[in-house]
Amino acid sequence: MSHAAVSPVLVIHGGAGVIKRDMTPAREHAVRAAMTQALQSGYAELKAGKPALDAVAAALAVLEDDPNFNAGKGAVFTHEGRNELDAAIMDGYTLRAGAVAGVRRVKNPILLARAVMEHSPHVMLSGDGAEAFAKEQGITLVDPAYFRTEERWQQLQKALKEDAAKQPHADVETARHFGTVGAVALDAQGHLAAGTSTGGMTDKRWGRIGDSPIIGAGTYANSGCAVSGTGWGEFYIRTVAAHEICMKVTQMRVPLKRAAAEVINQEIPSMGGNGGAIALDAEGHISIPFNTDGMYRGWIGADGAPHVALYGDEDDGTTEIPEPVPAESVAQP
Ligand code: ASP
Prior knowledge:
This protein is α+β, with helices and mostly antiparallel strands. It is built from 9 helices and 14 strands. The strands form 3 sheets. Strands 5-4-3-7-6-2-12-13 form an 8-stranded mixed beta sheet. A 4-stranded antiparallel beta sheet has the order 8-9-10-11. The structure holds aspartic acid (ASP). Aspartic acid binds at residues 15, 70, 177-180, 198, 200-201, 210-212, 218, 230-231, 233.
């Protein structure tokens, strides 16, 4: 099959639910800097002709290492006061996927998810087994204390108090799932990939696993569409959100923006959920819908300039992206 190559594109998110009044200038600066660095790291892979998977993994590893995001260092705490991390990655070209759930000592869960995909016969590993595999693969393990930040600890204390007082937590639900990271990329070969990494939701219980590591729910990619979701995970699982968006695009030929909006702005809120997603199609069209006050988001394309936006009323520039220009035709198997 012959396929017109397009300019590489990388889109990232750092979670939905950001509220302007809760931000300090210092935090805003740090978040924008980390998002920019993640875009540049991932895009460098694409510029070097590397596969979309490499861009996704590189961008997400930067965000996992940054304490401002709910993934890797800075992950939220469970009810018992632990950090249990979930991540997944999917290659749209081959439909291969890898995921890890409930890991407590893996510094970069996205790298372990990729190792599961590439070096194990399985798609998803959890807990101790996943960590034993990480060790075997030479993936960096850290003391669980590495993930702790004071801010996340205080968020848990607040949630525990609210639980004890049986207070309703309408806006707390948003705060509880804020900061997950995700990336979708289109490489020079026209192949797509998606990845997501998270600490889950503050105060989560009993080995709870969210949507992020569940292929089709929080993370999905095929030959025509890639999606990473962020939000109240239970709703993303019940709507199989990422897969749903991609099926609309590739099977029903619904334009990407409409497909993503139908799931994120209609289906999920109609069930009582909230959140957002980043979506990318094989022609380089981007969609970043969210039904929360804001969402950390960014993209980088042909001009190599990183674009980052945090708030709902901030122009993220996605409407200004010129129609992708087909480059030369490349042969594909
Ligand atoms: N979706 C994630 C979860 O439910 C949380 C998030 O996106 O912030 O685990």
